[in-house]
Amino acid sequence: MYLEFFNLGKSPFRQPPDLEFYFPLKQYESASAYLAYSILNSEGVVLLTGEDGVGKSLLIQKLMAQFDYASVVARVFQTQLDDTSLLRAILVEFGQKAFGLDKVELLDQLNSFLIDSYVNSVQPVIIIDDVQHLDVRALVELRLLLGLETDKVVIPQIVLVGTRAIEDKLQLPELSSLNSYIHLRKHLVPLGLEETSDYIRFRLAVAGGAEREVFLADAIESIYAHTKGIPRKINILCDTAMMCAFADECREINAGLIDTALLELGWETKDPENSDSYNSTASLLSR
């Protein structure tokens, strides 16, 4: 590995998302604060969207770390489910036995669990990842769970996480009721060029490499151009570039090494941006 070569204590661009490498970008901090406030104040459904790899999973990890003993969380990752399968998955995530039960029994058990949690001052939170893949019937079932609202709070709190595609699905007539329950919508966007530069330096610093620059300005420009500021893609490309630099015994990474990494990954190596606006923006790092 390249860690010793670059004098690093840990891998700076490792996957999957790790809270130790949470980058406190303004949009992340804002979304985190709003999501936490809405959930802790029992305001119903919140929606977090953004394209794949933009940082939603890490933000949800941060959010879950804020929950204390007064909360119980069910996080569902497998979302190609129908209504019955979703109910079963939620119950399993809540630590309940849910196998061998039909839909009516699942609903009864889940309702009982949610009410018991509320009575015992424990807040149940349901987090659905990749919600855009859920069957419409399953989304309708989520709305029905919100029928447990009391005169003071909504039970349970639901966090929907996915791409913009869920917004289109929520426009379906049968989902209008669920759509109306969404109290907060937050959308994450890719990083800009300077944010990409800061992100790379931040992760290297966390990994123990704060003493010097590893990625030169032209390398960062190329990384931004080929990843469009998507953190997951940045991580993959940077990790591969550092492997290539290690193989070539280069302690500084320039645009040429990024091209080598792109070839290793099988990504497009031609400059994906030819517009004057891109060239103008890219010049910021070389000033």
Quick overview of this protein structure:
The protein has 287 residues and is an alpha/beta fold. Helices cover 47% and strands 10% of the residues.
Radius of gyration: 22 Å
CATH fold topology of the largest domain: Rossmann fold
What is the β-strand count? Answer: 5
For the record, the CATH architecture of the largest domain stands as 3-Layer(aba) Sandwich
Total number of helices:
12
The largest sheet has its strands arranged as 2-3-4-1-5
What's the story with the biggest beta sheet?
Answer: 5 strands, parallel
Percent helix, as a range, is 40-55%
The oligomeric status of these chains comes to single chain
**Portion in beta strands:** 5-15%
3D architecture notes:
By secondary structure, the protein is α/β, with parallel strands linked by helices. The chain has two domains: about 25-185, P-loop containing nucleotide triphosphate hydrolases (Rossmann fold); about 190-270, Orthogonal Bundle (Helicase, Ruva Protein, domain 3), CATH 1.10.8.60. Helices cover about 45% and strands about 10% of the residues. It is built from twelve helices and five strands. The protein has helices spanning about 25-40, 55-65, 85-95, 105-120, 135-145, 165-170, 175-180, 195-205, 215-225, 230-245, 255-265, 275-280; strands at about 45-50, 70-75, 125-130, 155-160, 180-185. The protein has a five-stranded parallel β-sheet with strand order 2-3-4-1-5, with helices on both faces. Helix 1 (about 25-40) packs across helix 2 and helix 8 (about 195-205) packs across helix 9 (about 215-225). The longest helix has 17 residues, at about 105-120. It is elongated. The model is unreliable at about 275-285 (pLDDT under 50).
